[in-house]
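Document type: protein sequence-to-structure record

Subject area: structural biology

Format: plain text, a pair of labelled lines:
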Amino acid sequence: MNRPSLRSLFGSDDIVLAPGGGGPLDLLMVERAGYKAAYLSGYSVAAQRYGLPDIGLIAFREMSEVVNAVCRVTSLPIIVDCDTGYGGVLNVRQTVREFEDAGAAAVMIEDQSWPKRCGHMQNKTIEPIEIAVAKIEAAVKARRNDDLVIMARTDACDVLGFEEALRRCKAFKAVGADMVCMHSPRSIEDLKILAAEIEGPHVVSIGEGEFTDAIDVSELFRIGFQFASLPSGILRTAAFAVTAMLERVRERRHARDIAGSAIDLGTLNELVGLAALSDFEDSIGQRPGRAS
């Protein structure tokens, strides 16, 4: 599928928001809503596709299946959450090449120890800086298409503090990372220092329940951030809405009011491309001169 590269959005005149989802339908909705990029969230994939928490219970093969499914149906540039790269430098190489072949526009690799945990959970551990940097170097050397963006994320802010997180971001850039992400910054001042001391473009993860939730994205752009991901907003919104619907149906013993808060079936069919497939099916056997 022909899709723009994430690099083509570098230098945009506004911040690029990349909502996160856990599968093809989520990211089709992101595209339909007019966003320029999307984020395939490891948390959302674990919860939505497998019903599991994001604590390292799904790995490369499970994620690869979803990356391929997503890239087959959307033309948006997709940022893929690759967790820790799923092993050592050879695993990172495999991850980068297979996701690149699938159509990913960017891969994000973090510095947690495996089994990793969602960045918003407690009791995280991180790898020594030498191992973390080696993985980013491996990702840079593994790509075969220069359009693929290598994003390096550190969770050190929660574990060892801001100064160590900043040191790691600088080390990641030094070995060729295109973008860095400091997970769980504690203040706008942290973000300002990151943007001032490290060459951009920069990306920030917004949420969940952290101070970044309250920041106007125009302020992020003003201080130097080009991209912002919203990792689990779609998942949490859907879970809330579905839970409320199921409770109403159970209590009222009918489903008549679902239509008022649900997408209609025709729109959903349009979203998943039914019309184009039906047109193709109807075209078979309709060549000129052929008897009906």
